[in-house]
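Query structure, 343 tokens:
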């Protein structure tokens, strides 16, 4: 039961995570909703809905309401959010209204914030705050950002990559790229289509990335795996073998885009803070940090040390929780710019 408890929510384009103070991350589910096309009734949310992606009959659609780091379907996002907040307490009714800290994708506009606010109110929040993703990621990665010392965080999510230099509890310079794991998956799907005339779904593309994908193939064994899809010439199902180096070939351009975003922020970083980053290195968070060799690629390209956070997929959710506990301290030093109260 929530006794005026704090809840942190990472509303990501790929995954939604719920953090409850004192309990940690209590829920982690894909940001996918299956709805009935006609009645707009929700059929399934989360992992169950993800299994339906690309596999639904005509009247049901499995959708990802947050796409490319923005809210693509306002209505469904609100329903999904409400569902996750209510599940945070194991499905029981919230007896005492909680405080919420929500991290939303960086591309979300003021209008879209309304969806989050409405969902928060509907779910019974006493107050709700929004936090920017790089800040939450840094807090969740355990960085002490309250000091006058620069830290650099690169959060590679599903829809967006957020690059930021933080100091004194605030963001000094940053860039948000509409490129993340989804674009990497798409690049793999396109490559397989081009090279083999084989149509595969996004999920197969993502599986390939996780299984044999690499950002930095040097010194790595050239593993291979079998995949299935539909042959575009014969129209029949077919299996092929794909090698690691091919997947690298497919995704390298997308990764170069991320690397250039990081370099751009480094170029804009004030010299004193740049010196701090040389000492501390770059911290990688988000699911994209788990891509094999991503740290080595960034390190080679920037000449800096690159460290993958302990639990990159949970950093933002943990950070939202930390932010609620440390709100007074952080907002005092950053003059309230880091948070935005919405309810
Ligand atoms: N082991 C892995 N190797 C490569 N990529 C991975 C791995 N595990 C997860 N990912 C990728 O990480 C991405 C999801 O990361 P994350 O949950 O941080 O995104 P998100 O927070 O939902 O998105 P965003 O921050 O853009 O809104 C997906 O693209 C997924 O394919
Ligand atoms: Mg994220």
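Result returned for the query:
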């Amino acid at each position: 039961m929530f006794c005026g408890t704090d809840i942190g929510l990472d509303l990501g384009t790929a995954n939604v995570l719920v953090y409850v103070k004192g309990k940690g991350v209590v829920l982690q589910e894909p940001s996918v909703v299956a709805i009935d096309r006609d009645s707009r009734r929700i059929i399934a949310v989360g992992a169950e809905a993800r299994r339906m992606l690309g596999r639904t009959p005509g009247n049901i659609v499995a959708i990802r309401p947050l796409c490319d780091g923005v809210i693509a379907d306002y209505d469904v996002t609100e329903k999904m959010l409400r569902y996750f907040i209510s599940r945070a307490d194991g499905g029981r009714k919230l007896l005492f209204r909680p405080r919420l800290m929500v991290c939303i994708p960086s591309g979300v506009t003021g209008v879209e914030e309304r969806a989050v606010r409405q969902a928060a109110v509907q779910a019974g929040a006493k107050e709700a705050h929004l936090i920017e993703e790089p800040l939450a990621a840094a807090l969740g990665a355990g960085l002490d950002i309250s000091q006058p010392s620069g830290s650099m965080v690169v959060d590679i999510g599903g829809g967006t990559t957020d690059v930021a230099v933080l100091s004194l509890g605030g963001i000094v310079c940053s860039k948000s790229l509409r490129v993340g794991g989804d674009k990497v998956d798409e690049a793999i799907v396109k490559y397989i289509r081009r090279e083999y005339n084989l149509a595969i779904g996004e999920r197969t593309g993502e599986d390939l990335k996780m299984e044999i994908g690499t950002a930095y193939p040097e010194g790595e064994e050239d593993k291979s795996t079998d995949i299935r899809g539909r042959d575009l010439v014969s129209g029949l199902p077919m299996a092929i073998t794909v090698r690691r180096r091919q997947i690298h070939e497919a995704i390298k351009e997308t990764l170069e885009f991320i690397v250039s975003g990081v370099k751009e922020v480094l170029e804009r970083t004030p010299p004193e803070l740049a010196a701090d980053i040389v000492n501390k290195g770059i911290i990688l968070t988000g699911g994209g940090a788990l891509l094999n060799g991503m740290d080595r690629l960034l390190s080679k390209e920037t000449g800096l040390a690159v460290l993958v956070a302990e639990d990159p997929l949970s950093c933002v959710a943990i950070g939202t929780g930390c932010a609620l506990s440390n709100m007074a301290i952080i907002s005092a030093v950053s003059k309230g710019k880091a948070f935005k109260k919405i309810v």
